[in-house]
Fold this protein.
Amino acid sequence: MQWPFEVFIGLRYLRAKRRNSFISFISLVSVVGIALGVAALIIVLSVMNGFQKEIRGRILGAAAHVEVSDYQGRVSNWPDLSSRLLKQPRVIAAAPFVSAQGLLSVSGTVRGAMIRGVDPAYEHNVVEIGSHMVAGQMSALRQGGFGIVLGDQLAQQLGVQLGDKVTLITPEGNITPAGMMPRLKQFTVVGIFKMNMYELDASFAMIDLRDAQVLFRLGDDVTGVRLKLNDVMAAPEVKAQLQSVLNQDATVTDWTDMNANYFRAVQIEKRMMTIILTLIVAVASFNLVSTLVMVVTDKQADIAILRTLGAAPRSVMSIFMIQGAVAGVLGTLSGVVGGVLVAWNIGPIVGVLESITGSKILSPEVYMIDYLPSDVQWSDVGSITLISLALALFATVYPSWRASRTQPAEALRYE
């Protein structure tokens, strides 16, 4: 026998047929509980990582990495500002924009929308909306043409298609003898985009930059300049650098600021789900306590014989710790394999469930996307594995210690 006798006996206890089948059942339940808890934790964290990655990608498809504006919301001489910003490290593209709110009206149907004035020559370098057009082209926005590009959901709500007319009502009014009257301008739909993100597709519209300047009475000014970086995760760092370079009146925001509430909520939810599901793994791990207590009670005579043959209390403790640890390893590895496989194939699994139930699990109006994304991060898998193994090992300490305290004379008195 090459292994220490503690390992040999511990493994034998684990695989041997016990006189009490109930102990075997409890041991199996403990292993299955650990496996299910670990698998659930991996699947949930992978789905949450997938949501965060997917939504972040879609947000950045329509939002710039960094925006530079003025505290008054107006920037003059934007070409000079753009050239200065393009000289900064990590900045690879810049585009001016005008941002305002308005109402779109068609045949009595009115919808609120965020209106953005853009220059197609610069805009495609900063965001990806132009590559998500389902009708028309961004290049159709021309000065004086008064064309408008709508999200597909917004176009459906208004009941318009390519070439139809919509009326834009702006908050700024005209003073007339009859009082303040809203400003109205008719636009032609020259493009429809679909970002597969309901919040953008249902409330976002773009017009030409010069038309927006005229409509909102900005003259040659713009709302600000939007930037694209070579590393999106460096946006907070670039924001701090630009804030120190620009004058005190400048306002610099990055994509994490623009969507801070969403990403903060996702991060908090991820942490809370990790804690809750880790408690499930802990409960399953501590089922090993009851299993080992019953095993120790069942093996009192065996323990006494080992002690009389010269086995030290530490050796007896090691036997039962090995038995519990192996059960914890089996449960953990089974959970890791099952969790990773399910996380990799969560899309087809959800599709099967939707076909069986006949209902949509994810509504795009609520969750922004209509499918379940998954992103398995091996750092999370490693952390979950270590936590599960540590909990399982900790759960074996007390029963093993009690076994090591067994007195041979007391154990064999009634044998």
In short: The chain has two domains: 5-57+262-411, 64-258. The CA atoms of residues 48 and 270 lie 7 Å apart. The chain has a mean pLDDT of 82.
